[in-house]
Protein backbone atom coordinates (compact mmCIF):
# COMPACT_ATOMS: atom_id res chain seq x y z
CA UNK A 1 0.00 0.00 0.00
CA UNK A 2 1.41 3.40 -0.98
CA UNK A 3 1.70 6.40 1.32
CA UNK A 4 -1.25 7.97 -0.47
CA UNK A 5 -3.58 5.15 0.37
CA UNK A 6 -2.17 4.79 3.89
CA UNK A 7 -3.54 8.26 4.56
CA UNK A 8 -7.01 7.21 3.42
CA UNK A 9 -9.68 6.84 6.11
CA UNK A 10 -13.45 6.74 6.47
CA UNK A 11 -15.31 9.02 8.88
CA UNK A 12 -18.32 11.31 8.99
CA UNK A 13 -17.86 14.96 8.09
CA UNK A 14 -19.72 17.97 9.51
CA UNK A 15 -19.35 21.63 8.64
CA UNK A 16 -18.50 24.39 11.16
CA UNK A 17 -22.12 25.41 11.73
CA UNK A 18 -23.34 21.83 12.00
CA UNK A 19 -26.11 22.29 9.43
CA UNK A 20 -24.43 20.06 6.79
CA UNK A 21 -23.25 16.51 7.34
CA UNK A 22 -21.89 13.86 5.01
CA UNK A 23 -20.51 10.36 5.24
CA UNK A 24 -17.88 9.92 2.54
CA UNK A 25 -16.84 6.44 1.53
CA UNK A 26 -13.21 7.51 1.90
CA UNK A 27 -11.25 10.51 3.15
CA UNK A 28 -7.74 11.19 1.89
CA UNK A 29 -5.02 13.67 2.83
CA UNK A 30 -2.46 13.67 0.01
CA UNK A 31 0.90 15.17 0.92
CA UNK A 32 1.93 16.21 -2.59
CA UNK A 33 0.49 16.99 -5.99
CA UNK A 34 1.64 13.59 -7.25
CA UNK A 35 -0.17 11.84 -4.42
CA UNK A 36 -3.29 13.84 -5.19
CA UNK A 37 -3.16 12.79 -8.85
CA UNK A 38 -2.90 9.12 -7.81
CA UNK A 39 -5.78 9.56 -5.37
CA UNK A 40 -8.02 11.11 -8.02
CA UNK A 41 -7.25 8.37 -10.53
CA UNK A 42 -8.03 5.66 -8.00
CA UNK A 43 -11.34 7.32 -7.08
CA UNK A 44 -12.30 7.58 -10.74
CA UNK A 45 -11.48 3.90 -11.29
CA UNK A 46 -13.62 3.01 -8.28
CA UNK A 47 -16.56 5.11 -9.50
CA UNK A 48 -16.39 7.57 -6.61
CA UNK A 49 -17.22 11.25 -6.82
CA UNK A 50 -14.56 13.54 -5.34
CA UNK A 51 -14.89 16.74 -3.30
CA UNK A 52 -12.11 18.84 -1.78
CA UNK A 53 -12.95 20.36 1.60
CA UNK A 54 -11.35 23.09 3.67
CA UNK A 55 -12.30 23.89 7.25
CA UNK A 56 -16.04 23.59 6.64
CA UNK A 57 -16.85 27.27 7.12
CA UNK A 58 -19.33 27.19 4.23
CA UNK A 59 -22.99 26.85 5.19
CA UNK A 60 -23.89 25.07 1.96
CA UNK A 61 -23.22 21.48 0.94
CA UNK A 62 -20.65 22.55 -1.65
CA UNK A 63 -18.08 20.11 -0.18
CA UNK A 64 -20.43 17.29 0.82
CA UNK A 65 -19.96 13.89 -0.81
CA UNK A 66 -20.62 10.21 -0.29
CA UNK A 67 -17.55 9.44 -2.38
CA UNK A 68 -13.98 10.60 -1.71
CA UNK A 69 -13.39 13.64 0.49
CA UNK A 70 -10.03 15.31 -0.11
CA UNK A 71 -8.59 17.06 2.94
CA UNK A 72 -5.72 19.48 2.28
CA UNK A 73 -4.16 19.16 5.75
CA UNK A 74 -0.77 18.15 4.36
CA UNK A 75 -0.75 20.63 1.46
CA UNK A 76 0.25 23.65 3.52
CA UNK A 77 2.95 26.28 3.66
CA UNK A 78 4.45 29.00 1.50
CA UNK A 79 6.14 27.82 -1.69
CA UNK A 80 7.65 31.13 -2.74
CA UNK A 81 7.69 34.85 -2.02
CA UNK A 82 8.59 36.88 -5.11
CA UNK A 83 9.47 40.39 -3.98
CA UNK A 84 10.06 41.60 -7.51
CA UNK A 85 6.60 40.55 -8.69
CA UNK A 86 5.15 41.20 -5.20
CA UNK A 87 3.43 37.83 -5.01
CA UNK A 88 3.29 34.91 -2.62
CA UNK A 89 2.59 31.33 -3.72
CA UNK A 90 1.00 29.21 -1.03
CA UNK A 91 -0.20 25.62 -0.79
CA UNK A 92 -3.96 25.24 -1.01
CA UNK A 93 -4.54 23.89 2.49
CA UNK A 94 -2.80 26.75 4.27
CA UNK A 95 -5.15 28.53 6.69
CA UNK A 96 -5.56 32.25 6.06
CA UNK A 97 -4.48 32.86 9.65
CA UNK A 98 -1.14 31.18 9.02
CA UNK A 99 -0.69 33.04 5.73
CA UNK A 100 -1.46 36.40 7.33
CA UNK A 101 0.97 35.92 10.20
CA UNK A 102 3.71 34.59 7.89
CA UNK A 103 3.31 37.55 5.54
CA UNK A 104 3.43 39.99 8.46
CA UNK A 105 6.76 38.50 9.56
CA UNK A 106 8.04 39.19 6.04
CA UNK A 107 6.75 42.77 6.10
CA UNK A 108 3.98 41.96 3.60
CA UNK A 109 0.17 41.84 3.53
CA UNK A 110 -2.83 41.05 1.40
CA UNK A 111 -4.65 44.22 0.35
CA UNK A 112 -8.06 43.19 1.66
CA UNK A 113 -9.57 40.23 3.46
CA UNK A 114 -12.72 38.99 5.15
CA UNK A 115 -13.45 39.15 8.84
CA UNK A 116 -12.66 35.48 9.56
CA UNK A 117 -9.31 33.83 8.89
CA UNK A 118 -9.82 30.22 9.93
CA UNK A 119 -10.51 29.05 6.37
CA UNK A 120 -7.97 27.49 4.02
CA UNK A 121 -6.87 29.69 1.14
CA UNK A 122 -8.44 27.34 -1.43
CA UNK A 123 -11.72 27.02 0.44
CA UNK A 124 -12.03 30.75 1.01
CA UNK A 125 -11.32 31.72 -2.58
CA UNK A 126 -13.33 28.91 -4.18
CA UNK A 127 -16.54 30.20 -2.58
CA UNK A 128 -15.86 33.92 -3.08
CA UNK A 129 -15.00 34.97 0.48
CA UNK A 130 -14.79 38.75 0.73
CA UNK A 131 -14.48 41.62 3.13
CA UNK A 132 -15.59 45.16 2.45
CA UNK A 133 -13.89 47.73 0.24
CA UNK A 134 -14.49 50.81 -1.85
CA UNK A 135 -11.63 50.05 -4.23
CA UNK A 136 -10.19 46.67 -3.15
CA UNK A 137 -12.12 43.50 -3.92
CA UNK A 138 -12.42 39.94 -2.62
CA UNK A 139 -9.60 37.57 -1.76
CA UNK A 140 -10.20 35.77 -5.06
CA UNK A 141 -9.65 39.02 -6.98
CA UNK A 142 -6.13 39.16 -5.50
CA UNK A 143 -5.18 35.83 -7.13
CA UNK A 144 -2.50 36.13 -9.81
CA UNK A 145 -2.09 32.42 -10.60
CA UNK A 146 -3.26 29.01 -9.41
CA UNK A 147 -2.40 25.36 -9.84
CA UNK A 148 -5.32 23.05 -10.60
CA UNK A 149 -5.49 19.26 -10.84
CA UNK A 150 -8.30 18.28 -13.20
CA UNK A 151 -10.45 15.15 -13.38
CA UNK A 152 -8.06 13.27 -15.67
CA UNK A 153 -5.06 14.01 -13.42
CA UNK A 154 -3.64 16.85 -15.50
CA UNK A 155 -1.84 19.52 -13.47
CA UNK A 156 -2.63 22.93 -14.94
CA UNK A 157 -0.85 26.21 -14.26
CA UNK A 158 -3.43 28.96 -14.70
CA UNK A 159 -2.88 32.72 -14.95
CA UNK A 160 -3.58 35.56 -17.34
CA UNK A 161 -0.76 34.15 -19.52
CA UNK A 162 -1.22 30.39 -19.04
CA UNK A 163 -4.64 28.84 -19.65
CA UNK A 164 -6.25 32.28 -19.33
CA UNK A 165 -9.74 30.98 -20.15
CA UNK A 166 -9.56 28.63 -17.15
CA UNK A 167 -8.01 31.30 -14.93
CA UNK A 168 -10.90 33.63 -15.75
CA UNK A 169 -13.35 31.26 -14.07
CA UNK A 170 -11.28 29.13 -11.67
CA UNK A 171 -10.53 31.88 -9.14
CA UNK A 172 -14.04 31.18 -7.83
CA UNK A 173 -14.53 27.61 -8.95
CA UNK A 174 -16.79 26.05 -6.27
CA UNK A 175 -14.64 22.91 -6.36
CA UNK A 176 -16.37 22.11 -9.65
CA UNK A 177 -13.38 22.35 -11.99
CA UNK A 178 -10.79 20.32 -10.12
CA UNK A 179 -8.69 20.41 -6.96
CA UNK A 180 -6.65 23.56 -6.39
CA UNK A 181 -3.21 22.73 -5.02
CA UNK A 182 -1.54 26.15 -4.90
CA UNK A 183 -2.50 29.82 -5.21
CA UNK A 184 -0.39 32.86 -6.02
CA UNK A 185 -1.66 36.06 -4.42
CA UNK A 186 -0.66 39.66 -5.05
CA UNK A 187 0.81 41.21 -1.90
CA UNK A 188 2.08 44.62 -0.89
CA UNK A 189 4.30 46.02 1.84
CA UNK A 190 2.55 45.77 5.18
CA UNK A 191 0.65 48.91 6.11
CA UNK A 192 -1.37 50.29 8.99
CA UNK A 193 -5.12 50.66 9.18
CA UNK A 194 -6.99 52.89 11.57
CA UNK A 195 -10.34 51.42 12.55
CA UNK A 196 -13.06 53.71 13.81
CA UNK A 197 -16.05 51.94 15.32
CA UNK A 198 -19.06 54.08 16.13
CA UNK A 199 -22.73 53.50 17.00
CA UNK A 200 -25.17 55.16 14.60
CA UNK A 201 -28.92 55.01 14.09
CA UNK A 202 -30.34 53.03 11.15
CA UNK A 203 -31.96 56.00 9.45
CA UNK A 204 -28.72 57.98 9.46
CA UNK A 205 -26.62 55.10 8.16
CA UNK A 206 -28.99 54.36 5.30
CA UNK A 207 -29.41 58.05 4.42
CA UNK A 208 -25.64 58.62 4.38
CA UNK A 209 -24.69 55.19 3.03
CA UNK A 210 -23.26 56.36 -0.32
CA UNK A 211 -21.28 59.12 1.36
CA UNK A 212 -19.90 56.75 4.02
CA UNK A 213 -18.79 54.30 1.33
CA UNK A 214 -17.21 57.05 -0.77
CA UNK A 215 -15.32 58.60 2.14
CA UNK A 216 -13.83 55.40 3.54
CA UNK A 217 -11.58 52.75 2.02
CA UNK A 218 -13.47 50.06 3.94
CA UNK A 219 -16.91 50.70 5.41
CA UNK A 220 -19.32 48.24 6.98
CA UNK A 221 -22.09 48.27 9.53
CA UNK A 222 -24.30 46.01 11.58
CA UNK A 223 -27.99 46.65 12.16
CA UNK A 224 -29.59 45.09 15.24
CA UNK A 225 -33.09 43.80 14.34
CA UNK A 226 -35.95 45.00 16.59
CA UNK A 227 -34.05 48.25 17.13
CA UNK A 228 -33.11 51.35 15.16
CA UNK A 229 -29.48 50.94 16.21
CA UNK A 230 -26.38 50.12 14.18
CA UNK A 231 -22.66 49.79 14.80
CA UNK A 232 -20.41 51.15 12.03
CA UNK A 233 -16.78 50.40 11.24
CA UNK A 234 -14.53 52.51 9.01
CA UNK A 235 -11.05 51.24 8.14
CA UNK A 236 -8.60 53.59 6.44
CA UNK A 237 -4.88 53.50 5.82
CA UNK A 238 -2.82 55.36 8.35
CA UNK A 239 0.69 56.80 8.63
CA UNK A 240 0.73 55.54 12.20
CA UNK A 241 1.96 55.05 14.76
CA UNK A 242 0.41 51.72 15.61
CA UNK A 243 -2.04 51.98 18.49
CA UNK A 244 -3.72 48.58 18.96
CA UNK A 245 -6.58 48.14 21.41
CA UNK A 246 -5.45 47.82 25.01
CA UNK A 247 -5.27 44.27 26.30
CA UNK A 248 -8.07 44.79 28.78
CA UNK A 249 -10.34 46.98 26.63
CA UNK A 250 -9.74 44.77 23.57
CA UNK A 251 -10.61 41.65 25.55
CA UNK A 252 -13.80 43.30 26.86
CA UNK A 253 -14.96 44.31 23.36
CA UNK A 254 -13.81 41.33 21.29
CA UNK A 255 -14.10 38.44 23.72
CA UNK A 256 -16.36 39.31 26.65
CA UNK A 257 -19.02 41.33 24.77
CA UNK A 258 -18.77 40.06 21.17
CA UNK A 259 -18.34 36.39 22.08
CA UNK A 260 -18.92 35.55 25.76
CA UNK A 261 -21.94 37.66 26.66
CA UNK A 262 -23.27 37.44 23.11
CA UNK A 263 -23.18 33.63 23.38
CA UNK A 264 -25.23 33.81 26.57
CA UNK A 265 -27.67 36.26 24.96
CA UNK A 266 -28.14 34.01 21.92
CA UNK A 267 -28.70 30.94 24.10
CA UNK A 268 -31.26 32.83 26.16
CA UNK A 269 -32.97 34.11 23.02
CA UNK A 270 -33.21 30.60 21.58
CA UNK A 271 -34.77 29.36 24.82
CA UNK A 272 -37.08 32.38 25.26
CA UNK A 273 -37.70 34.02 21.86
CA UNK A 274 -40.00 36.65 23.37
CA UNK A 275 -36.96 38.09 25.17
CA UNK A 276 -35.00 38.73 21.95
CA UNK A 277 -36.19 42.33 21.26
CA UNK A 278 -35.22 43.40 24.78
CA UNK A 279 -31.88 41.60 24.48
CA UNK A 280 -31.29 43.30 21.10
CA UNK A 281 -31.85 46.73 22.59
CA UNK A 282 -29.30 46.01 25.32
CA UNK A 283 -26.80 44.40 22.92
CA UNK A 284 -26.98 47.28 20.46
CA UNK A 285 -26.02 49.71 23.20
CA UNK A 286 -23.27 47.59 24.75
CA UNK A 287 -20.57 48.29 22.17
CA UNK A 288 -19.08 51.77 22.53
CA UNK A 289 -17.15 53.95 20.09
CA UNK A 290 -13.45 53.16 19.80
CA UNK A 291 -10.50 53.89 17.51
CA UNK A 292 -7.34 51.82 17.07
CA UNK A 293 -4.52 51.37 14.55
CA UNK A 294 -2.77 48.12 13.62
CA UNK A 295 -1.55 45.97 10.73
CA UNK A 296 -4.28 44.82 8.32
CA UNK A 297 -5.18 41.31 9.47
CA UNK A 298 -5.50 42.50 13.06
CA UNK A 299 -8.01 45.15 11.95
CA UNK A 300 -9.94 43.30 9.23
CA UNK A 301 -10.47 40.06 11.17
CA UNK A 302 -12.20 39.28 14.45
CA UNK A 303 -12.67 36.13 16.54
CA UNK A 304 -16.02 34.46 15.81
CA UNK A 305 -16.73 31.89 18.51
CA UNK A 306 -20.54 32.05 18.55
CA UNK A 307 -21.71 29.58 15.92
CA UNK A 308 -24.49 30.51 13.53
CA UNK A 309 -26.07 29.82 10.14
CA UNK A 310 -25.89 32.54 7.50
CA UNK A 311 -27.44 33.73 4.25
CA UNK A 312 -25.82 36.54 2.25
CA UNK A 313 -26.80 38.22 -1.00
CA UNK A 314 -24.85 40.60 -3.22
CA UNK A 315 -27.02 43.34 -4.71
CA UNK A 316 -26.28 46.11 -7.17
CA UNK A 317 -24.97 48.74 -4.78
CA UNK A 318 -27.65 51.24 -5.74
CA UNK A 319 -30.32 48.77 -4.57
CA UNK A 320 -28.84 48.17 -1.11
CA UNK A 321 -30.61 50.88 0.89
CA UNK A 322 -34.05 50.05 -0.52
CA UNK A 323 -33.49 46.35 0.20
CA UNK A 324 -32.35 47.11 3.75
CA UNK A 325 -35.39 49.24 4.45
CA UNK A 326 -37.62 46.47 3.08
CA UNK A 327 -35.82 43.96 5.29
CA UNK A 328 -36.31 46.12 8.37
CA UNK A 329 -39.99 46.66 7.58
CA UNK A 330 -40.45 42.90 7.09
CA UNK A 331 -38.88 42.11 10.47
CA UNK A 332 -40.83 44.88 12.23
CA UNK A 333 -44.22 43.63 11.02
CA UNK A 334 -43.51 39.89 11.36
CA UNK A 335 -43.58 37.58 14.38
CA UNK A 336 -39.92 36.70 13.72
CA UNK A 337 -37.46 37.15 16.57
CA UNK A 338 -33.92 37.77 15.29
CA UNK A 339 -31.04 37.63 17.75
CA UNK A 340 -28.17 38.26 15.31
CA UNK A 341 -27.27 41.61 13.71
CA UNK A 342 -27.56 42.09 9.94
CA UNK A 343 -24.18 42.80 8.32
CA UNK A 344 -23.71 45.18 5.37
CA UNK A 345 -20.53 45.46 3.29
CA UNK A 346 -19.50 46.62 -0.20
CA UNK A 347 -17.18 45.61 -3.05
CA UNK A 348 -16.08 47.13 -6.36
CA UNK A 349 -16.84 45.31 -9.59
CA UNK A 350 -14.39 42.58 -10.59
CA UNK A 351 -13.79 40.38 -13.64
CA UNK A 352 -14.29 36.85 -12.25
CA UNK A 353 -17.11 34.93 -13.94
CA UNK A 354 -18.90 33.67 -10.81
CA UNK A 355 -17.84 36.41 -8.41
CA UNK A 356 -20.83 37.90 -6.62
CA UNK A 357 -19.38 41.28 -7.69
CA UNK A 358 -18.73 40.19 -11.28
CA UNK A 359 -19.21 43.18 -13.55
CA UNK A 360 -21.04 45.33 -11.04
CA UNK A 361 -20.35 47.41 -7.95
CA UNK A 362 -22.00 45.51 -5.15
CA UNK A 363 -23.34 45.70 -1.62
CA UNK A 364 -23.66 42.62 0.57
CA UNK A 365 -26.47 42.03 3.02
CA UNK A 366 -25.89 39.10 5.36
CA UNK A 367 -28.40 37.66 7.82
CA UNK A 368 -27.59 35.17 10.55
CA UNK A 369 -29.32 33.04 13.15
CA UNK A 370 -27.82 31.32 16.14
CA UNK A 371 -26.88 27.67 15.59
CA UNK A 372 -29.82 25.38 16.30
CA UNK A 373 -32.46 28.09 15.70
CA UNK A 374 -34.98 27.32 12.92
CA UNK A 375 -33.94 29.65 10.12
CA UNK A 376 -36.15 28.74 7.17
CA UNK A 377 -38.92 31.31 7.72
CA UNK A 378 -36.50 34.22 8.18
CA UNK A 379 -34.18 33.26 5.35
CA UNK A 380 -37.09 32.62 2.97
CA UNK A 381 -38.49 36.08 3.64
CA UNK A 382 -35.05 37.66 3.22
CA UNK A 383 -34.36 35.75 0.02
CA UNK A 384 -37.63 36.99 -1.46
CA UNK A 385 -36.47 40.58 -0.93
CA UNK A 386 -32.97 39.99 -2.25
CA UNK A 387 -33.99 38.16 -5.41
CA UNK A 388 -36.47 40.94 -6.24
CA UNK A 389 -33.42 43.19 -6.55
CA UNK A 390 -31.43 40.79 -8.74
CA UNK A 391 -29.40 39.50 -5.81
CA UNK A 392 -26.64 36.94 -6.16
CA UNK A 393 -26.30 34.48 -3.26
CA UNK A 394 -22.92 33.89 -1.69
CA UNK A 395 -21.80 30.47 -2.92
CA UNK A 396 -20.89 29.29 0.57
CA UNK A 397 -23.99 30.51 2.40
CA UNK A 398 -27.53 29.20 2.65
CA UNK A 399 -29.69 29.81 -0.42
CA UNK A 400 -32.31 28.03 -2.49
CA UNK A 401 -31.42 29.35 -5.97
CA UNK A 402 -30.97 27.08 -8.96
CA UNK A 403 -29.03 27.21 -12.22
CA UNK A 404 -31.92 28.81 -14.11
CA UNK A 405 -32.03 31.76 -11.70
CA UNK A 406 -28.25 32.09 -11.45
CA UNK A 407 -27.79 32.09 -15.22
CA UNK A 408 -30.05 35.14 -15.27
CA UNK A 409 -28.03 37.17 -12.75
CA UNK A 410 -24.55 36.13 -13.93
CA UNK A 411 -23.89 37.27 -17.52
CA UNK A 412 -20.84 34.98 -17.71
CA UNK A 413 -22.53 31.91 -16.22
CA UNK A 414 -22.32 30.04 -19.53
CA UNK A 415 -18.60 30.76 -19.73
CA UNK A 416 -18.08 28.95 -16.43
CA UNK A 417 -20.23 25.95 -17.30
CA UNK A 418 -18.50 25.59 -20.68
CA UNK A 419 -15.10 25.33 -18.97
CA UNK A 420 -16.57 22.86 -16.49
CA UNK A 421 -17.94 20.73 -19.34
CA UNK A 422 -14.46 20.64 -20.85
CA UNK A 423 -12.51 19.93 -17.66
CA UNK A 424 -14.95 17.57 -15.94
CA UNK A 425 -17.37 16.13 -18.49
CA UNK A 426 -18.12 13.11 -16.31
CA UNK A 427 -18.70 15.24 -13.20
CA UNK A 428 -16.05 13.59 -11.05
CA UNK A 429 -16.30 16.66 -8.82
CA UNK A 430 -20.09 16.85 -8.86
CA UNK A 431 -22.54 16.65 -5.98
CA UNK A 432 -26.16 17.58 -5.30
CA UNK A 433 -25.35 21.20 -4.47
CA UNK A 434 -23.45 21.76 -7.71
CA UNK A 435 -26.21 20.02 -9.65
CA UNK A 436 -28.68 22.56 -8.27
CA UNK A 437 -26.62 25.72 -8.76
CA UNK A 438 -24.78 24.80 -11.98
CA UNK A 439 -27.13 22.32 -13.61
CA UNK A 440 -26.27 18.90 -14.99
Helix count from the secondary structure assignment: 15
- Beta-strand percentage? 15-25%
Q: Total strand count, please?
A: 20
The low-confidence runs, each spanning 5 or more residues with pLDDT under 50, are: 1-6
Question: What order do the strands of the largest sheet run in, or round the barrel if closed?
Answer: 16-13-15-14-18-19-17-20
CA-CA gap between termini: 36 Å
Q: Kindly state the mean pLDDT as a whole number?
A: 93
**Which percent bin holds the helix content?**
25-40%
Specify Rg, calculated over alpha carbons.
21 Å
Quick one: biggest sheet? 8 strands, antiparallel
What is the global morphology? Answer: globular
**Main structural class:** alpha+beta
Description of the structure:
By secondary structure, the protein is α+β, with helices and mostly antiparallel strands. Helices cover 33% and strands 24% of the residues.
Keywords:
440 residues; alpha+beta; 8-stranded antiparallel β-sheet; 5-stranded antiparallel β-sheet; 20 strands; 33% helix; globular; disordered N terminus
Q: What topology emerges from the helices and strands here?
A:
Elements: H1 3-6, E1 13-14, E2 21-22, E3 26-28, H2 33-45, E4 50-52, E5 68-70, E6 78-82, E7 87-91, H3 96-105, E8 108-109, H4 121-126, E9 143-149, E10 155-159, H5 164-170, E11 179-186, E12 188-189, E13 192-201, H6 202-207, H7 209-215, E14 218-223, E15 229-238, H8 247-271, H9 276-286, E16 290-294, H10 296-300, E17 308-316, H11 320-333, E18 342-347, E19 362-370, H12 376-388, E20 392-393, H13 403-409, H14 413-423, H15 432-438
Parallel strand pairs: 3-5, 4-5
Antiparallel strand pairs: 1-2, 6-7, 7-11, 8-12, 9-10, 9-11, 13-15, 13-16, 14-15, 14-18, 17-19, 17-20, 18-19
Helix pairs in contact: 8-9, 11-12
